[in-house]
Amino acid sequence: MSGKAERRKRKKIPQRTSGSQGVPVEKAPDRLAVLATIERLEREGRFDEDAENDPPTIPLEPEEIDYLRRKPSSKLKAKAAYRIAESFVDKLIREGKLVIRSVNGLENLDGVESGAVITCNHFNPFDCFTVEKIFRQSVHYGKKKLFKVIREGNYTNFPGLYGFLFRNCDTLPLSQNKRTMYNFLRSVDTILQQGDFILIYAEQSLWWNYRKPKPLKNGAFKFAVKNNVPVIPIFITMEDSDRIGEDGFPIQEYTVFIDRPIYPEKELAERQRVDAMRDCNYEAWKRIYEDFYGIPLTYTTE
User: Fold this and answer.
1) Is residue 106 part of a domain?
2) Which of 120, 222, 282, 287 is the most buried (most CB within 10 A)?
3) Residues forming beta bridges with residue 199, ordered by sequence position
4) Integer distance in angstroms from the first to the last C-alpha of the chain?
5) What DSSP designation does 3 have?
6) Does residue 66 lie in a domain region?
7) Closest by CA position to 119, among listed 19, 225, 199, 32
């Protein structure tokens, strides 16, 4: 193990840290509670459960969502939402609250000519902004769209600015309503067949600042197999910056790794193709994790 990796492994974050003016900043109790929950969930092997309380879920009715954004009103709202989101993200970057140190493997994204499923580890409500920012650096920006699969509650019951963005930035909310989900599934097929991309958090849970890859669910890979399109694995690593956020924790600096596209193996049965793509995606994330942090991937699961 390298000295740098060893230092990373042994580093402990104190309960009190200093802000930009050297004034001690208390760590936010709610963040400490979330980290404790993450530790417990990992220990119990419950990787697909969110560590934070999500907004209450209000069932999404079919007439309440235009998945493909074909209505004039949907197009206008999307245009306004993206304008607001772009300004919001640029402000986060200027203020040093969103730090993207580097992007590796953009050619792997650029080289895909068909539609594709993008997977990414989910560790922050804003990590979709990072993926959108990277997508806009690719050759596809202006030619293809990047849709994002989100929770039903984020679409139906998230307040304020974030709620507006969740509803209008080409999002694809899941739903407990069977008719709505039928429309969702048809729209996913249409999007992939017409050559656009869909971001899916295949871990199915958000664990704040969790650096390890979590086990993956099958859904993203089923969509890819059904539509004969590749999966593009993205894994984002984190390092503590020397700046302290309002929650008392170091602001994270992101390094984005875009791995080689994974294509369905046509000689396999459908279920085997799904399993093979899922396992290949996980192995890619595991490799990136171990190479970047210089430590083997292990879990505390009992």
Assistant:
1) yes
2) 120
3) 118, 148
4) 25
5) H
6) no
7) 199
Residues in Cβ contact with 80 at an 8 Å cutoff, skipping those fewer than 6 apart: 168
Residue 268 structure tokens: 């396999």
Q: How buried is 271 (Cβ within 10 angstroms: 0-12 exposed, 13-18 middle, 19+ buried)?
A: exposed
Instruction: Give residue-wise pLDDT tens across range 79-108.
Output: 999 999 999 999 999 999 999 999 999 999
The model's pLDDT over 182-235, given as tens digits with 9 standing for 90+, comes to 999 999 999 999 999 999 999 999 999 999 999 999 999 999 999 999 999 999
Q: Do residues 214 and 93 make contact, with C-beta atoms less than 8 angstroms apart?
A: no
Quick one: which of 121, 138, 150 has its CA closest to 210? 121
Give mean pLDDT, residues 120-128. 93
Nearest CA-CA partner of 238 in 205, 212, 207:
212
Q: At what angle do helices 178-193 and 219-227 cross, to 10 degrees?
A: 50
CATH of the domain at 250: 3.40.1130.10
**Residue 62 within a domain:** no
Cβ neighbours around 64 below 10 Å, total: 15
Q: What is the pTM of this model?
A: 0.90
Domain hosting residue 117, numbered range: 27-54+98-153+171-293
